[in-house]
Amino acid sequence: MTGPLYEVFVRAKRGLNHVHVGSLHAADDRTALSHARDVYTRRNEGVSIWVVRADAITASSPDEKEPLFDPAGDKVYRHPTFYEVPDDVPHL
Amino acid sequence: MCPTSEPGGTAAVDHGPYADLDATDPAHWAFGTGFADPLAGIDPELPEGLDRTGHAALCLLLGDDALVYSHRLSEWCSRAPDLEDDVALGNIALDLLGQARLLLARAAVVDPTVVPAMPVGSPVPAEDALAFFRDAPAYHSSRTAALANGDFGHTVLRLFLWSTVRLAVLQRLVDHPDPVLAAIAAKGVKELTYHRDWSGRWVVTLAQGTEESRGRMVAAFDALAAARVELLGRYPDAGVEAEDVLDQLLDAAELRRPEEGADAGLADDLPDLLAELQSVARAHPMGRW
User: Fold this and answer.
1) What is the pLDDT of residues B213-272, one digit of tens each?
2) Which of B36, B140, B148, B261 could share a disulfide with B61, CB 3.0–4.6 Å?
3) What is the CATH number of the domain that holds A50?
4) Is B129 within 8 Å of B116 (Cβ atoms)?
5) Taking CB atoms and an 8 Å limit, are A12 and B83 in contact across chains?
6) Could you tell me if B21 lies within 8 Å of chain A, comparing CB atoms?
7) For residue B269, what are the contacts with CB-CB under 8 A and spacing of at least 6?
8) Is a pLDDT exceeding 50 seen at residue B113?
9) Which residues of chain A does B18 touch, with a Cβ-Cβ cutoff of 8 Å?
């Protein structure tokens, strides 16, 4: 298949967020959406699809892993663990 | 919500994206609850005033066309230009197979005399008996649906022409007095809208592509001129709408309206198709699948 690489995000139902499900090649944006529908939502997985050209995504580099993420590793006081989450609050 | 929590058991299972599969949309249950019998749980009675013979013939007309075309499309499996279009063609074939099952099963309920006789004790359900144990002359499908596959351009154009006409036909059946046929039509309208859109986009893409792809699209229009005449002849009520949609496509593809053909020149590829479709089932009339 020719064409640029697209990343595919699918939202499973109302109220949830779009989740990255995979990638595909397509000649243009609309074809990418059509392909995503055919490949990633054929088992009733989604109610909404985003496709984004992979080259439009700015990503962090594995080389930056330590300076970007390690400093957050020992800051336990940033986790609000002392809250009781009510039973009727899903997806928190 | 899924009725998954049991007394004293663990919390409800999270089915993730599949949680809504058993959602209680009433339209869903119009097609019954059984995989083995697509119309399980459906009231077999017909509304007053519907002629059983004629209504069964209508169900077979629509069901046979879907079954035969589904088989042709399924032959693309593993052969499409890329994986995504391979899956797309498979999805479309499966949509049509689903329509065919519902329509053949409905025809058998409406008029049991249409179902071929099977050996005593055969477990073959009526829809399978209709699909696998009728010879070509008993089929009500179009020649267009049975045509042997050409290249990819021929395939997307045939799908566009066929789904445009079928969509117009099903749209008129959404209000049919038989509630089962009306529900089948409503389901089919959504599916065919996508089939038409998918194939139409490909026709435009190929027509506006390279010199080679445009040439193949023009050739496909010539090859399918008789098919278009046949489809419009089968469903005269759908003609105006189908021709209007075709004009929009030709406009987008910057193609000229093809010469009018005569459907006399259309090959009859149904016997070959049925030979492959039916041979295994016919070898085992007592088989349980």
Assistant:
1) 999 999 999 999 999 999 999 999 999 999 999 999 999 999 998 877 666 689 999 999
2) B140
3) 3.10.20.520
4) yes
5) no
6) yes
7) B143, B146, B147, B148
8) yes
9) 43-45
pLDDT value for B14: 60
Taking an 8 Å cut-off on Cβ atoms, the answer to whether B84 and A39 are in contact is yes
In angstroms, the separation between the Cα of residue A35 and the nearest Cα of chain B is 6
Q: What is the pLDDT of residues B163-186, one digit of tens each?
A: 999 999 999 999 999 999 999 999
Q: Is the pLDDT of residue B10 over 70?
A: no
CB contact under 8 A, A24 and B87: no
Contact A45 B91 (CB under 8 A): no
Strands (E), A1-92: 5-11, 18-25, 48-53
Q: Is residue A47 part of a domain?
A: yes
Structural domains of chain B, ranges and CATH numbers in brackets: 47-283 (1.20.1260.10)
Q: What is the CA radius of gyration of chain A?
A: 18
Residue bearing the bigger pLDDT, B6 or B96: B96
N- to C-terminal Cα distance for chain A?
40
Assigned domain for A92 exists = no
Place of tokens 């949830």: A16
Instruction: Classify residue A88: in a domain, yes or no.
Output: no
Query: What residue numbers bound the domain in which A21 lies?
Result: 5-60
- The ipTM assigned to this model is 0.74
Closest Cα in chain B, distance from residue A67 (Å): 34
Please tell me whether the overall predicted TM-score, pTM, comes out greater than 0.90 for this model: no
Q: What pLDDT score was predicted for residue A83?
A: 76
Q: Is A33 on the interface with B (CB under 8 A)?
A: no
Question: Which residues in chain B have their CB less than 8 angstroms from residue A13's CB?
Answer: 17, 19-20
On whether residue A48 sits in a domain, the answer given is yes
Residues in chain A within 8 Å Cβ distance of B16: 12
